[in-house]
Amino acid sequence: MTEQVPKSPLSQRLRLGLFRSLACLLLLFGILGFVALVIGAYLTATDPHANGWFPPFLLGGSALIVLLMIRVAYRAMKIQSVEQLEEQSKSRWLAFTDALLAG
User: CB under 8 Å, gap of 24 or more: what pairs does 81-87 form?
Assistant: First the structure.
C-alpha cells in the first residue's frame, strides 16, 4: 500500500487562499449579473415593442442562476480553515468511493 504524504501547511494555506479568492471572484460576477438583470428588467419593461412571454422567462431564469451563484459564493466565503474546506469537499452522493479505496 502506498502512504499519502501529508501536504505542507504552506500548500494548504495557498489552497485555502486560492479557494477564497475564486469565491470572491464568483461573488463579484454574481453581483455584476444581478446589476445586469436589474438593467435588463428596466429596459424590457420600458420597451414599447417587447411583447410575449420570452423576456420575462429569460429574466426569471437568469435571476435564479445569478442568485444560486451568489449563494454558492457566499457559502464558499464562510470557509475559514483547511478543515472546513476538507469537510465541504466530501461528496454526499459519492460516499462509496471511500469504501472502494479502503478495500
Answer: 81/16, 82/12, 82/13, 82/15, 82/16, 85/15, 85/16, 85/19
Position 7 scores a pLDDT of 61
Could you give the CA distance from residue 35 to residue 41 in angstroms, rounded to a whole number? Answer: 10
User: How many Å is the Cα radius of gyration of the chain?
Assistant: 21
- CA torsion sign for 21, 22, 23, 27 is positive
**Mean pLDDT over all residues of the chain?**
82
Mean pLDDT for 5-21 is 81
pLDDT of residue 89: 74
**Hey, is 90 helix, strand or coil?**
coil
The candidate with the shortest Cα–Cα distance to 63, out of 28, 86, 34, is 34
Determine the Cα–Cα distance for residues 2 and 98; give it in Å rounded to an integer.
Answer: 15
With contact defined as beta carbons under 8 Å apart, do 85 and 16 qualify? yes
Distance (Å, rounded) from C-alpha 69 to C-alpha 29?
A: 8
